[in-house]
Design brief:
It contains 16 helices and 22 strands. The protein has 444 residues and is of the alpha/beta class. The strands form 4 sheets. It has a 6-stranded parallel β-sheet with strand order 3-2-1-4-5-6, sandwiched between helices. Strand 5, helix 5 and strand 6 form a beta-alpha-beta unit. It is globular and about 60 Å long. About 1% of the residues have low confidence.
């Protein structure tokens, strides 16, 4: 299938990287140096041009495209691009937007703007932060099989009870699968003999209760969940995070420096305590007992400010910090200095869009460690190599780097074991090394 991507920033590049091996990808961008770089770094056709111009879209072959993805940093450009594409093609169009009101307008009249699917970056990021905040030590959290299955990635601290245990010894849970371990830049497929080390990142898949039980067991702090929440910055992301916590019965605190914005969000969030102040003021943070928070979420307008606020919170004794970052290259720096989780809105957006490109094969996709591995959900068919045989038998036909994490069957969770037989219609959640992903999708 021909896929036309308009916008070659981080989102567009990530999508193109995921699709270059399986699709005919064309990228349109206004910047000549970016186009030159893509030409030599990816197996795609890169064109310098304006995606809102029908002539340039036709140059990119939009009339024969099955999918058009508009993912520049400008909402209006993305909407116009989709509308222009619809005038000359029947392609499915996806638009990335930042502002939630545009999403709400589109939801009220689907197909508006010439957009078939809309991805709201700020809302996606807020949802990710909310999911992560609900599990201690979690780096990433996703739900599969309609909420029946949860995947989570956890940091293992040096003092964690599971450090230096084998997976076999650490596995005390009825419905949990240890899928993979990230260690020093390498990805390790977990087996019973794999030893969990301090500073590893461990990926588990299972029932929500079992994943939460594992989260509770691996931490050394005595904090009891994320009940006391402090959000720094009433940006759209910060506002949406507070709204999500309110909807789930929490009463978060939100710190915003700008008087007008503080007043605006206070009127919209009746169950949030909005404080007008500079969150980089250490004396203010101490005076307001921020140290009593279970989690501090930094959602200010710059990476540097979010880093400073997170470090101040850590210094005061806050157990867990989450920061929004716009530049993914800073993620390792944030985590090196002690910030627990760094969430990049562009990565979240790219992940959501990539899911749509796999619609014929997968129900859902979650990317891990900057797409070092993925967790995918597929529906097993009668002719799939997954069905009709015990797992221990058909895994030999799959590439190395694949773990069957969970199975949903008729609304019930089946924990996979070597003797488990996958049936047609089962929803299977797999952990897959990104290097063999295309081969796995083709095989199943």
């Amino acid at each position: 299938m021909r896929v036309v991507i308009v916008g070659a920033g981080e989102v567009g590049r990530t999508i193109a990287t995921n699709l270059e091996d399986s699709h005919d990808v064309v990228i349109v961008d206004c910047d000549s140096s970016t186009v030159d770089d893509l030409t030599y770094s990816l197996d795609v056709l890169a064109i310098e041009g304006d995606g809102t111009n029908v002539d340039w879209l036709l140059e990119a072959g939009v009339d024969s495209a099955g999918l058009v993805i508009a993912c520049t940093d400008d909402d209006e450009t993305n909407l116009v691009t989709c509308g222009a594409a619809k005038t000359v093609s029947d392609a499915f169009t996806i638009a990335r937007v930042k502002r939630r009101p545009l999403l709400e307008t589109w939801q009220g009249s689907q197909g508006a703007f010439g957009v078939d699917f809309m991805v709201c970056t700020d809302l996606l990021t807020a949802q990710t932060i909310f999911r992560i905040s609900g599990l201690r030590a979690a780096q990433d959290v996703e739900m599969f099989a309609g909420g029946l299955v949860r995947m989570a990635e956890f940091d293992i601290d040096p003092g964690s009870p599971v450090a230096d245990l084998s997976v076999r010894d650490a596995d005390r849970y009825d419905s949990l699968t240890f899928a993979g371990i990230f260690r020093d830049g390498d990805m390790i497929v977990a087996t019973g003999d794999t030893v969990i080390r301090a500073d590893d990142k461990v990926v588990v898949i299972g029932s929500p209760d079992s994943v939460k039980g594992f989260a509770d067991d691996i931490v050394t702090s005595k904090a009891n969940g994320s009940k006391e929440v402090v959000i720094v910055g009433a940006s759209e992301i910060g506002f949406q995070v507070a709204r999500l916590f309110e909807e789930h019965g929490n009463r978060p605190r939100l710190i915003e420096r700008d008087h007008d914005r503080a007043r605006e969000v206070a009127e919209k969030l009746p169950n949030t305590l909005v404080m007008e102040s500079d969150a980089t003021d250490a004396e203010f943070l101490a005076r307001e007992h921020i140290d009593e928070a279970d989690i501090v979420i930094a959602a200010l307008d710059s990476d540097e400010k979010n880093l400073l606020v997170s470090l101040l919170a850590r210094r005061l004794g806050v157990d867990r910090t989450v920061a929004v970052i716009e530049h993914p290259e800073y993620a390792d720096v944030f985590e090196t200095v002690g910030i627990d989780v760094a969430v990049n809105p562009r990565e979240e957006t790219a992940e959501e869009i990539v899911r749509f490109t796999r619609a014929d094969h997968t129900e859902k996709v979650a990317m891990l460690e900057h797409d070092r591995a993925e967790v995918i959900e597929i529906e097993a068919t009668a002719d799939s190599i997954l069905t009709g045989r015990p797992i221990a038998e058909f895994t030999a036909d799959l590439p190395d780097g694949v773990v069957i994490g969970a199975i949903s069957r008729g609304g019930d969770l089946v924990t996979p074991r070597g003797t488990t037989v996958v049936k047609p219609g089962d929803h299977v959640v797999l952990f897959v090394d990104a290097e063999v992903l295309d081969a796995v999708i083709n095989d199943i």
